[in-house]
Design brief:
Chain lengths: ~290, ~325
Amino acid sequence: MAIIDFINFYIVPGLLLGSIYAVGAIGITMVFGILRFAHFAHGDMATMGAFIALAVVGLFGVTPWTALPIAMVLTAILAVGIDRTFYDYLRKRPAILTVMASLGVALMLRSLVQVIWGVDPQTYQRGIVRPDTYFGILLRPRELYTFLSVIVIVVALTIFLRASKWGKAMRAMSDNPDLARLSGVDNRMVTLLLWTIVGALCAASGFMLAINTELTPMMGWFLLLPMFAAAILGGVGRVEGAVLGGLIVGMVEELSVLVMPGQYKAATAFVILLLILLVRPRGLLNGKVL
Amino acid sequence: MELIGLANYAIFMGILIGIYALLSLALNIQWGFTGLFNAGVAGFFAIGAYTSAILTSTPALNRMGGFEWPILLGWAAAMLVAAMIAWPIGKICLRFRSDYLAIATIGVAEIFRLIIKSEDWLTGGSRGITGIPRPFGDLPYVQSQLAYLALVVIAVLVVYLLVERQLKAPWGRMMRAIRDNEAAAAAMGKQVEARRLQAFIFGSAIMGLAGALFVHFNRSITPEAIDPMIATFLIWIMLILGGSGNNRGAILGAAVIWIIWSVSELLTDRLPTEVAIQAKYIRIFIIGLMLQLVLRFRPEGILPEERKRNPVGPG
């Protein structure tokens, strides 16, 4: 097999899948790091975001990529609403109860999608798109846009977290919540901001998976395991770790078909998760261990 | 005639409630007494179901197995295999907070679903496994159902009594101590990790047994028989609503939720087809919402744990 074919058939799809995982894993790692619980509704929130984008496309007749920012805003509002309704009152109780509540929210979100949009696979746009060639590398426009969007999202988020006042507050909450509170960080505002970002990221990851494959009510649930594997592999609480972890998990998944049957692609994330918990639970970039 | 039909339905419900009661009791060992979040209950259930099915069924051309083992041996094997799969998972994840165990158990359930679907030679793929013997299966219908009900009730009773006894023993006190204050228990020289692993394996084995009871009742199994997320969730809500930390509560919750769940299915089945599919998902939505309501308004469940100090879950 020529190198260029290897790149086209394994590396590019791996990076594509990996960057979608990365966007989702950032949200997971932020909730895990700041609110200190595993958010199981993350995948189904991504599904919801993807379907909201579908509704926007249907209602206003805009292109999918124009619908994406609108869907991100709407999903962010939804995420804040879910936090206020279902998670907020549990914050004083053991965190594992919030994990449980989030599993319930996952089920509710998914069944809502199934009630509103049905169970059949759908797409944003019909028709086959031919890939363009860039120095021998085949890329469809939607794949190119996905890579560009992921880069924009990661860079914007990094700048926000490093340079802005609220970004620093969020990192402070993640590092040491008691100290952050003592220094006057507004807990509620950080939580509000967190869910805004998480909701928007969910919508982005769901949308990007859907535009590169198709929309199904279960798509988000299948994202959950790879996203958690990515977050833990990178180190819980580390945004750049989540990106790194997402890319690795996506790449390993695509490469795994070289050595094992394709239907077990989904199992690789699980194996990565167990291995990293076994040998280095802090993750590659020294995250938190709860 | 109506009455007989109703009685038959009641027996059928009774058997399923018994099987769910076993699952709820098993989850109570893991969550109620130890504070472990197993989000893959259906996975361990399916592992038990398929193990016993493969070992006890009649030989078939399209797959391995059909060893025609005695049924009781099949049940024992179901428990053993479920326990053996629980062991490494628990060993890796129980060092950390229960969130990690929850993620890993979701993984177990998903992977096992993949295996069921794709390994035709082992599990019969989407056609599933048929020809699974049923104890007292040769009797006429009603007697056979009654006999199976008795069998399930005995299984529930045995597990209930064993667990109750165990909890009254020093072991039970130690488990509650670990759950409520891990640091203090560790300081008293209790081996927190090993004990948790014990509870996780024990609970998983009983989930495997419940799977075996289910598969011999049904006489066949296909991948569609178990929807991991919904089954797991039903069992969780049974336990939380019934009262986690209380074995009678676990059994009561299984009965209440299973009756609500099946009666609502009877109702939605009468709707016209276009609406019926939507109604099915609305039922799932309501189950999710119910959990939120119980967590919010009655976190201790209908029958709270007897010691009042820490009503819900781990501290």
